[in-house]
Automatic annotation (TrEMBL), chains A, B, C:
Keyword Transcription regulation: no
GO cellular component, one term: plasma membrane
Taxonomic superkingdom: Bacteria
Source organism (scientific name): Gaoshiqia sediminis
Name of the featured protein: Trimeric intracellular cation channel family protein
Residue ranges of every copy of the Glycine transporter domain listed in the record: 7-81, 93-166
Family: Belongs to the UPF0126 family.
Entry membrane topology: Multi-pass membrane protein
Predominant cellular place of this UniProt entry's protein: membrane
TM segment ranges: 6-25, 32-52, 58-80, 92-110, 116-138, 150-168, 174-195
Keyword Membrane: yes
């Protein structure tokens, strides 16, 4: 179990490092700035999760393999981006993969520590989405998670799907793969068709022009 | 003692959730974005406090009742706000209540862990004010705490008042209620009369127009 | 060893408090706002380091002497700044001193906990640079560390220099003083001659005007 979580989590860190590096390159950061944003995006969610769960060591402090994958992800992003400039899709694809993989590891770790279902869902969403929130704060943007892109909602739904499958006694690999693919697919559908949850004041958006979009 | 702290703390989380939800609705976030800001505002200060005190579990990880109160606060805010739009007062009232209740729980927990008085004051202020700081960072504003509104100052004074009453052997309910009411009343007075501490460069404010207000 | 780390670390907190206070005064914060930014800048990096290392208490929670030095640093900055207004150099000098001293304590603590070299470097850079990142986030700026000023790079090089000297069996005071002076000197050279690492898209900067500089 622990091994599978690690495997998924390393893949997630690789995908999120790419997403972070692309964002930082768009902001014209220097190479080390690009690596730092990639690092923060990749480990931010899991780090907060591990700090929230008392008596759990922060994952990348004890396992340096993550750092190698993040460096690899950053280098891939740099090579990749120079060939595919002006395409913003890759950011969303890797972000979606990272969200899916990390959300599920967060839920699994919550279950391992015997937390209540609602806390497992919150830990999953934190693990999946907080790295991206940190990335956006560091580049001084309103976090993408709040921009009516159904971001956290999908992570929450994916976490609930995992808990449901788990309750119904599904086992691996279905138990893990289905919620991960659900989250990735949902994110891509949402971006493709530009779906958003209604703002609670949709009718007023034209009146007040002060909102930063 | 522990029970009373919990009771106050839950009320504080309810008030701060409302304050967070109102801010997020003003920024036109989607419903889940509103909940996340409410959640972060409500638990941010206490979470940092619990992470700073080694060997203390994060309060909402072990007690899910907080999450229910935060959800209730968010729903109240949504219903409440739609009736009282364009009124910014509620934000300040609930923020003041949360600041008062949380500051005192922070000081009490510091005393429980045998920390020095200055650290109890800092923990109290972190517990009371950090959730609001996170709220403002997440919506990409300069935190309200820094906007010459005597915010942290009042929290610090309230914490010192609690420590003084404690030293003078006052007991509950006076020991708790007086500093909480002091903080709430001071905040409302400050907002009502628009009082602010002088900037250290008040005379220069017109010359340099670059400061973001 | 522990005593020397504390000594260096207290000097670092003093220097970073001055750097934080100057930034906050430039932003016209009220006196308590100035102290809070000074505090966060001074303890932010070490606090994150201590929270990342499981079973290590946060340094300023157990040792209140830091808080006294931060208060002293804030008062010095207020007196100092009023005499030397319009001079931005002091900010960089104290920031450089803090970066140097804190980076090395971070590396030393990583070694003490038997972490891998790469993690010692990361902990050193976090200890040295994260306080400044928090300072910039709180005043709603893109962190200086990302502004092509070779900031993190120098911290990383200083950390590697320390690990190399340590491997070559150099002992104190050379082991500590050389990397600290290296970091401070490099930062001042970089600022003096306005050196920056190339952006990964330097040629494109004129085309896209959306980047906030």
């Amino acid at each position: 179990m622990e091994i599978i979580i690690n495997y998924i989590s390393i893949l997630g860190s690789f995908a999120l490092a790419i997403s972070g590096a692309i964002t930082a390159m768009d902001k014209r950061f220097d190479p080390f700035g690009v690596f730092i944003i990639a690092f923060v995006t990749a480990v931010g969610g899991g780090t907060l999760r591990d700090m929230l769960i008392n008596d759990r060591s922060v994952f990348w402090i004890t396992q340096t393999s993550y750092i190698h994958f993040i460096i690899a992800g950053t280098i891939c992003a740099i090579i990749f981006k120079s060939k595919l400039d002006h395409i913003t899709k890759p950011l969303f694809i890797f972000d979606a993969i990272g969200l899916g993989l990390y959300t599920i590891t967060g839920v699994q770790i919550g279950l391992e520590y015997g937390l209540a279902a609602v806390n497992c869902v919150i830990l999953g969403t934190i693990t999946g989405a907080f790295g991206g929130v940190l990335r956006d704060i560091l580049v001084n943007e309103v976090p993408i998670i709040f921009k009516r892109e159904v971001y956290a909602t999908i992570s929450i739904l994916g976490a609930i799907l995992y808990l449901t499958l788990n309750k119904l006694h599904f086992i691996n690999p279905i138990l893990q793969i289905v919620p991960v693919l659900f989250i990735i697919a949902m994110r891509l559908v949402v971006i493709r068709y530009n779906i958003s949850l209604p703002s609670l004041y949709a009718d007023e958006r034209k009146k007040k022009g002060t909102t930063r979009e």
